[in-house]
């Protein structure tokens, strides 16, 4: 999944439930942190065995220092949304790395054949495969650009509506 999708889909969710704030927008680049493992140790930052203790430690530190979990919860949301979206995008996401070097993802191969009006592979399939280093990284896609455009369109409409009130 590309940079724009990982950034804007969580923002669209927060906007949709009425919880988006400037702070959330500032923290949203955290949704890209798991892909830093593309540079080294493939799979490390997509693993729940690795990122969960880190996120819990950040939450514990925030609670001790600030007395709340406001920033650490939204940071966790952005980081974990990345892993979730990669699973939905087919993976493989190594959620138990380094204990298990296999990753999984969900593939959607449903097709309708217009020549004879048949449908194949209507149900999604879970794919499990060995993880391997990436040769490339998808920066932008049409879906990511659409996600960004939808986010800004909804945001503009909400701003215009709030100014009218």
What percent strand?
5-15%
Give the helices and strands as they follow along the chain.
HHHHEEEEH
Domain count: the total is: 1
Provide the structure class: mainly alpha
Helix content: 40-55%
The geometry reads as flat
What is the CA-atom radius of gyration, in angstroms?
Answer: 18 Å
Number of strands: 4
Total number of helical segments? 5
Gap between N and C termini: 38 Å
Average pLDDT works out at 95
Question: Reading side by side through the largest sheet, how are the strands ordered?
Answer: 1-4
The biggest beta sheet, please? 2 strands, antiparallel
Organism: Geoglobus ahangari
Transmembrane segments: 39-59, 71-88, 139-160
Keywords: Membrane, Transmembrane, Transmembrane helix
Protein name: Metal-dependent hydrolase
Report on this model:
This protein has one domain (3-164). Helix content is 49%, strand content 11%. The chain is built from five helices and four strands. The strands form two sheets. It has a two-stranded antiparallel sheet with strand order 1-4. It is flat and about 55 Å long. The model has no long low-confidence stretch (mean pLDDT 95). Keywords: Membrane, Transmembrane, Transmembrane helix. This is Metal-dependent hydrolase. The chain crosses the membrane at residues 39-59, 71-88, 139-160.
């Amino acid at each position: 999944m590309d940079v724009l999708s990982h950034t804007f889909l969580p923002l669209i969710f927060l906007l949709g439930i009425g919880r988006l704030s400037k702070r959330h927008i500032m923290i949203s680049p955290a949704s890209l942190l798991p892909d830093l493992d593309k540079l080294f140790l493939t799979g490390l930052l997509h693993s729940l065995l690795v990122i969960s203790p880190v996120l819990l430690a950040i939450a514990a530190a925030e609670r001790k220092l600030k007395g709340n979990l406001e920033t650490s919860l939204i940071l966790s949301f952005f980081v974990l949304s990345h892993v979730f979206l990669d699973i939905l995008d087919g993976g493989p996401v190594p959620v138990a790395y380094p204990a298990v070097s296999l990753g999984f993802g969900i593939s959607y191969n449903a097709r309708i054949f217009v020549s004879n009006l048949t449908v194949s592979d209507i149900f999604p399939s879970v794919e499990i495969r060995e993880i391997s280093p990436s040769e490339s990284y998808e920066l932008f896609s049409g879906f990511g650009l659409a996600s960004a455009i939808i986010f800004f369109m909804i945001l503009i409409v909400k701003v215009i509506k709030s100014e009218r009130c």
